[in-house]
Design goal:
Elements (H helix, E strand, L loop, with lengths): L7 H12 L4 H11 L13 E3 L10 E7 L15 H9 L5 E5 L7 H5 L2 H6 L4 E5 L2 H5 L4 H16 L4 E5 L14 H21 L4 E4 L23 H26 L4
Parallel strand pairs: 2-3, 2-4, 4-5, 5-6
Antiparallel strand pairs: 1-3
Helix pairs in contact: 1-2, 1-8, 3-9, 7-8
InterPro entries: Ester_Hydrolysis_Enzymes, SGNH_hydro, SGNH_hydro_sf
Organism: Candidatus Neomicrothrix subdominans
GO molecular function: phosphatidylcholine lysophospholipase activity
Amino acid sequence: MGVARVGMARVGVAAAAALTGGGAGLAAELVWAGRRPLPEFPDIDVSGVVPASAPSGKPPLRVVVLGDSTLTGPGLAAPEDIWLRQAIRRLRLRRAVCVVSLAVGGSRVSDVAARVDEAAVLKPDLAVVAVGSNDVIRGVPVQTLARKLGSVVDSLLDAAPVVAAANMGDLGNVLRFPAPLNIVLHMRSRQAARAIGATIERRRRAVLLDVTRSNPAFRDPGVFVADRFHPNAAGHAAWADSALPGMRLAFDRLFTGHSSPG
């Protein structure tokens, strides 16, 4: 299926409609473009243990993750390549970290909300959430996305001492969405990132993982796998770079409030 040919005048109207919540037609075009017949890759389970930097004699910290393909790494060679595992390794913590993943590719915020109770049963020390891109692509109003994500974070905070939530990078950089559709995705994802940031800042025990710092890296077509949608190991490394300050803050808060890192 080829990319839809859309006149620039129509794009301007559609972009305005999308940004004001009335872009159902444009959202359909985005989904259509997103389902082009390209290679498909299975989800990877990011679950596993990241060893401590040195023996501590303490049990591993449990990190429960929920979200979309941001956390399942389609097209990667191994779970160690996923940004979350990369970031935790770089922190060189004195406690081992056991990552337990409930993430599923294609998830929206409502899908994540349906698994919060499952996450709570796992008694996480830290919960990590990365979701929202599929909502943006499918035209969910940004404020609706942010409100639902806030509810997810609130519910997770009832079960975990600290919650770290990612915003989203510039979806206009995704190769699968060429001009003019990428223009709308650029605007919508930028709005969503701001709304998510504001949502997290209002919650004292929540930490923002600001992946917008990686936007310049994703202007390089070489950071995508063959499906032209998901990042390769280099793209995940860029996400890890961006998320690292937030991950460090999340663990610092966890150690300060509940244990010592030593």
